[in-house]
Protein backbone atom coordinates (compact mmCIF):
# COMPACT_ATOMS: atom_id res chain seq x y z
CA UNK A 1 0.00 0.00 0.00
CA UNK A 2 1.29 3.46 -0.90
CA UNK A 3 0.87 6.51 1.32
CA UNK A 4 -0.32 9.49 -0.69
CA UNK A 5 1.44 11.88 1.67
CA UNK A 6 4.71 9.96 1.41
CA UNK A 7 4.41 9.87 -2.37
CA UNK A 8 3.97 13.64 -2.48
CA UNK A 9 6.88 14.21 -0.08
CA UNK A 10 9.24 11.97 -2.08
CA UNK A 11 8.39 13.76 -5.33
CA UNK A 12 9.11 17.06 -3.58
CA UNK A 13 12.50 15.77 -2.40
CA UNK A 14 13.37 14.77 -5.95
CA UNK A 15 12.29 18.20 -7.22
CA UNK A 16 14.78 19.72 -4.75
CA UNK A 17 17.54 17.60 -6.26
CA UNK A 18 17.77 15.38 -3.19
CA UNK A 19 18.16 11.63 -3.43
CA UNK A 20 16.32 9.70 -0.71
CA UNK A 21 17.57 6.17 -0.19
CA UNK A 22 15.43 3.08 -0.52
CA UNK A 23 15.32 2.95 3.29
CA UNK A 24 14.15 6.59 3.41
CA UNK A 25 11.34 5.87 0.97
CA UNK A 26 10.19 2.73 2.82
CA UNK A 27 10.31 4.54 6.16
CA UNK A 28 8.37 7.56 4.86
CA UNK A 29 5.74 5.29 3.35
CA UNK A 30 5.37 3.31 6.59
CA UNK A 31 5.04 6.34 8.84
CA UNK A 32 2.75 8.00 6.29
CA UNK A 33 0.40 5.00 6.26
CA UNK A 34 0.38 4.88 10.04
CA UNK A 35 -0.37 8.60 10.30
CA UNK A 36 -3.12 8.43 7.69
CA UNK A 37 -4.77 5.54 9.50
CA UNK A 38 -4.54 7.43 12.79
CA UNK A 39 -5.85 10.77 11.54
CA UNK A 40 -8.55 9.77 9.08
CA UNK A 41 -11.61 7.81 10.20
CA UNK A 42 -11.39 4.70 8.04
CA UNK A 43 -12.96 2.53 10.76
CA UNK A 44 -16.64 2.28 11.40
CA UNK A 45 -18.15 4.51 14.04
CA UNK A 46 -19.32 1.35 15.80
CA UNK A 47 -16.09 -0.66 15.50
CA UNK A 48 -15.10 -2.36 18.74
CA UNK A 49 -12.07 -1.10 20.66
CA UNK A 50 -8.85 -2.91 19.79
CA UNK A 51 -7.55 -5.29 22.46
CA UNK A 52 -4.19 -6.94 23.11
CA UNK A 53 -3.62 -9.84 25.52
CA UNK A 54 -0.36 -10.35 27.38
CA UNK A 55 0.06 -13.74 29.06
CA UNK A 56 -2.56 -16.25 30.05
CA UNK A 57 -4.69 -17.25 33.00
CA UNK A 58 -4.85 -15.20 36.19
CA UNK A 59 -1.65 -13.35 35.30
CA UNK A 60 -3.04 -12.17 31.94
CA UNK A 61 -2.95 -8.42 31.30
CA UNK A 62 -5.48 -6.97 28.85
CA UNK A 63 -4.73 -3.71 27.08
CA UNK A 64 -7.45 -1.83 25.20
CA UNK A 65 -7.66 1.00 22.73
CA UNK A 66 -7.66 4.19 24.82
CA UNK A 67 -10.69 6.42 25.06
CA UNK A 68 -10.42 10.16 24.56
CA UNK A 69 -10.75 10.45 28.34
CA UNK A 70 -7.53 8.45 28.71
CA UNK A 71 -5.80 10.70 26.20
CA UNK A 72 -6.95 13.86 27.95
CA UNK A 73 -5.74 12.45 31.27
CA UNK A 74 -2.27 11.73 29.93
CA UNK A 75 -2.10 15.17 28.28
CA UNK A 76 -2.92 16.71 31.65
CA UNK A 77 -0.38 14.48 33.36
CA UNK A 78 2.43 15.44 31.00
CA UNK A 79 1.69 19.09 31.70
CA UNK A 80 2.16 18.57 35.43
CA UNK A 81 5.07 16.16 35.90
CA UNK A 82 8.13 15.05 33.97
CA UNK A 83 7.20 11.47 33.24
CA UNK A 84 10.77 10.60 32.34
CA UNK A 85 11.69 11.18 35.98
CA UNK A 86 9.13 8.58 37.13
CA UNK A 87 8.58 5.92 34.48
CA UNK A 88 9.34 5.29 30.83
CA UNK A 89 6.80 6.53 28.29
CA UNK A 90 6.12 2.89 27.38
CA UNK A 91 5.15 2.04 30.96
CA UNK A 92 2.80 5.03 31.18
CA UNK A 93 1.20 4.28 27.82
CA UNK A 94 0.68 0.64 28.80
CA UNK A 95 -0.91 1.76 32.07
CA UNK A 96 -3.30 4.06 30.21
CA UNK A 97 -4.31 1.23 27.88
CA UNK A 98 -4.72 -1.16 30.78
CA UNK A 99 -7.10 0.65 33.15
CA UNK A 100 -10.65 2.00 32.97
CA UNK A 101 -11.35 5.73 33.09
CA UNK A 102 -12.51 5.56 36.70
CA UNK A 103 -9.24 3.87 37.68
CA UNK A 104 -7.04 6.75 36.52
CA UNK A 105 -5.39 8.38 39.56
CA UNK A 106 -5.44 12.10 40.27
CA UNK A 107 -2.55 13.48 38.16
CA UNK A 108 -1.95 16.19 40.76
CA UNK A 109 -1.18 13.57 43.43
CA UNK A 110 2.36 12.23 42.83
CA UNK A 111 2.00 9.61 45.57
CA UNK A 112 -1.21 8.08 44.14
CA UNK A 113 0.15 8.40 40.60
CA UNK A 114 3.40 6.57 41.33
CA UNK A 115 1.61 3.87 43.34
CA UNK A 116 -0.95 3.15 40.61
CA UNK A 117 1.55 3.00 37.75
CA UNK A 118 4.08 1.02 39.78
CA UNK A 119 1.41 -1.55 40.68
CA UNK A 120 0.46 -1.94 37.03
CA UNK A 121 4.14 -2.17 35.99
CA UNK A 122 4.59 -4.99 38.50
CA UNK A 123 1.78 -6.93 36.77
CA UNK A 124 3.69 -6.58 33.49
CA UNK A 125 7.11 -7.48 34.92
CA UNK A 126 7.13 -10.94 33.32
CA UNK A 127 6.69 -9.54 29.79
CA UNK A 128 9.51 -8.18 27.63
CA UNK A 129 9.59 -4.55 26.55
CA UNK A 130 9.14 -5.71 22.96
CA UNK A 131 5.95 -7.59 23.88
CA UNK A 132 4.52 -4.63 25.78
CA UNK A 133 5.51 -2.19 23.01
CA UNK A 134 3.80 -4.30 20.34
CA UNK A 135 0.62 -4.56 22.44
CA UNK A 136 0.54 -0.82 23.19
CA UNK A 137 1.10 0.21 19.58
CA UNK A 138 -1.62 -2.16 18.39
CA UNK A 139 -4.10 -0.72 20.87
CA UNK A 140 -3.19 2.89 20.10
CA UNK A 141 -2.94 2.85 16.31
CA UNK A 142 -3.77 -0.63 15.02
CA UNK A 143 -0.26 -1.19 13.70
CA UNK A 144 2.33 -3.88 14.30
CA UNK A 145 5.82 -2.46 14.81
CA UNK A 146 7.52 -5.82 14.25
CA UNK A 147 6.04 -6.91 10.93
CA UNK A 148 5.28 -5.73 7.41
CA UNK A 149 5.30 -2.11 6.33
CA UNK A 150 5.11 -0.81 9.89
CA UNK A 151 8.44 -2.40 10.80
CA UNK A 152 10.17 0.44 8.95
CA UNK A 153 8.87 2.90 11.52
CA UNK A 154 10.99 1.20 14.19
CA UNK A 155 14.50 2.55 13.63
CA UNK A 156 16.35 0.71 16.42
CA UNK A 157 17.63 -2.83 16.04
CA UNK A 158 17.34 -3.27 19.81
CA UNK A 159 14.37 -5.47 20.75
CA UNK A 160 14.27 -3.73 24.12
CA UNK A 161 13.80 -0.27 22.61
CA UNK A 162 10.53 1.62 22.76
CA UNK A 163 8.65 1.92 19.46
CA UNK A 164 8.82 5.37 17.91
CA UNK A 165 6.46 7.53 19.92
CA UNK A 166 2.93 7.64 18.59
CA UNK A 167 2.00 9.79 21.54
CA UNK A 168 -1.41 10.57 22.88
CA UNK A 169 -1.63 14.30 22.22
CA UNK A 170 -3.95 17.24 21.71
CA UNK A 171 -6.99 15.23 22.76
CA UNK A 172 -8.68 18.28 24.29
CA UNK A 173 -8.23 20.18 21.02
CA UNK A 174 -9.72 17.30 19.04
CA UNK A 175 -12.77 17.25 21.30
CA UNK A 176 -13.17 21.04 21.28
CA UNK A 177 -13.01 21.17 17.48
CA UNK A 178 -15.54 18.35 17.19
CA UNK A 179 -17.96 20.02 19.58
CA UNK A 180 -17.54 23.31 17.69
CA UNK A 181 -18.42 21.56 14.43
CA UNK A 182 -21.60 20.32 16.07
CA UNK A 183 -21.30 16.62 16.87
CA UNK A 184 -23.84 17.12 19.64
CA UNK A 185 -21.77 15.69 22.50
CA UNK A 186 -20.56 17.12 25.79
CA UNK A 187 -16.94 16.80 26.91
CA UNK A 188 -17.89 13.99 29.26
CA UNK A 189 -19.70 12.08 26.53
CA UNK A 190 -16.79 12.52 24.11
CA UNK A 191 -14.33 11.32 26.77
CA UNK A 192 -16.11 7.95 26.84
CA UNK A 193 -15.45 7.34 23.13
CA UNK A 194 -12.28 6.05 21.42
CA UNK A 195 -10.68 8.56 19.07
CA UNK A 196 -11.70 6.71 15.90
CA UNK A 197 -15.39 6.85 16.83
CA UNK A 198 -15.31 10.53 17.71
CA UNK A 199 -13.42 11.40 14.52
CA UNK A 200 -15.90 9.42 12.46
CA UNK A 201 -18.69 11.53 13.98
CA UNK A 202 -16.74 14.74 13.29
CA UNK A 203 -16.10 13.89 9.64
CA UNK A 204 -19.69 12.76 9.14
CA UNK A 205 -20.89 16.10 10.55
CA UNK A 206 -18.33 18.08 8.56
CA UNK A 207 -19.19 16.36 5.29
CA UNK A 208 -22.88 17.02 5.93
CA UNK A 209 -22.06 20.72 6.36
CA UNK A 210 -19.69 20.75 3.38
CA UNK A 211 -16.76 21.61 5.63
CA UNK A 212 -14.35 18.88 4.53
CA UNK A 213 -12.30 19.26 1.36
CA UNK A 214 -11.13 15.73 0.54
CA UNK A 215 -8.15 17.13 -1.41
CA UNK A 216 -6.89 19.02 1.64
CA UNK A 217 -7.42 16.46 4.40
CA UNK A 218 -3.68 15.74 4.66
CA UNK A 219 -2.95 19.23 6.05
CA UNK A 220 -3.85 17.87 9.48
CA UNK A 221 -1.55 14.85 9.20
CA UNK A 222 0.00 14.22 12.60
CA UNK A 223 3.44 15.46 13.60
CA UNK A 224 5.04 12.00 13.44
CA UNK A 225 5.13 12.11 9.64
CA UNK A 226 6.51 15.63 9.47
CA UNK A 227 9.18 14.94 12.10
CA UNK A 228 10.34 11.97 10.04
CA UNK A 229 10.29 13.96 6.82
CA UNK A 230 12.22 16.87 8.40
CA UNK A 231 14.84 14.47 9.75
CA UNK A 232 15.36 12.82 6.36
CA UNK A 233 15.38 16.16 4.51
CA UNK A 234 17.99 17.66 6.86
CA UNK A 235 20.26 14.63 6.47
CA UNK A 236 19.96 14.63 2.68
CA UNK A 237 20.71 18.36 2.48
CA UNK A 238 23.73 17.88 4.73
CA UNK A 239 25.02 15.05 2.55
CA UNK A 240 24.49 17.12 -0.60
CA UNK A 241 26.35 20.11 0.92
CA UNK A 242 29.32 17.91 1.86
CA UNK A 243 29.51 16.49 -1.63
Written description of the protein model:
With 243 residues, the protein is mainly α. The protein has a domain at 51-144. Helix content is 53%, strand content 3%. It has ten helices and two strands. Strands 1-2 form a two-stranded antiparallel ribbon. Helix 1 (4-15) packs across helix 2 (22-39). The protein starts with a helix and ends with a helix. Residues 147-168 and 211-221 have low confidence and may be disordered.
In brief:
The chain has helices at residues 4-15, 22-39, 68-78, 89-98, 110-123, 129-141, 171-181, 187-191, 195-209, 223-241, and strands at 51-54, 61-64. The chain is mainly alpha-helical and 243 residues long.
- Tell how many strands the DSSP assignment holds: 2
Given helix and strand content, the structural type is mainly alpha
Order of helices and strands: HHEEHHHHHHHH
Q: Write out the strand line-up for the largest beta sheet, numbering strands in chain order.
A: 1-2
| Gap from first CA to last CA | 34 Å
Query: What average pLDDT do the residues reach?
Result: 77
- Specify the number of helices: 10
> What overall form do the CA principal axes indicate?
globular
Unreliably modeled segments:
147-168, 211-221
Strand proportion: under 5%
The largest pleated sheet is described as: 2 strands, antiparallel
Question: Helices, strands, pairings?
Answer:
Blueprint (H helix, E strand, L loop, with lengths): L3 H12 L6 H18 L11 E4 L6 E4 L3 H11 L10 H10 L11 H14 L5 H13 L29 H11 L5 H5 L3 H15 L13 H19 L2
Antiparallel strand pairs: 1-2
Helix pairs in contact: 1-2, 2-10, 4-6, 7-9
Amino acid sequence: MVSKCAESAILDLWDQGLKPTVTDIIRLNAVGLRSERTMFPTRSLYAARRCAFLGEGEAQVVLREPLLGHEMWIDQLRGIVDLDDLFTSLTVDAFVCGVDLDELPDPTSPKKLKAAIAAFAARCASFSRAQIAAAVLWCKSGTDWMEGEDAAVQKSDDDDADPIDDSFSFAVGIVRNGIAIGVGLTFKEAAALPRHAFQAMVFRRARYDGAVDEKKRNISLDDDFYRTLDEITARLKGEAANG
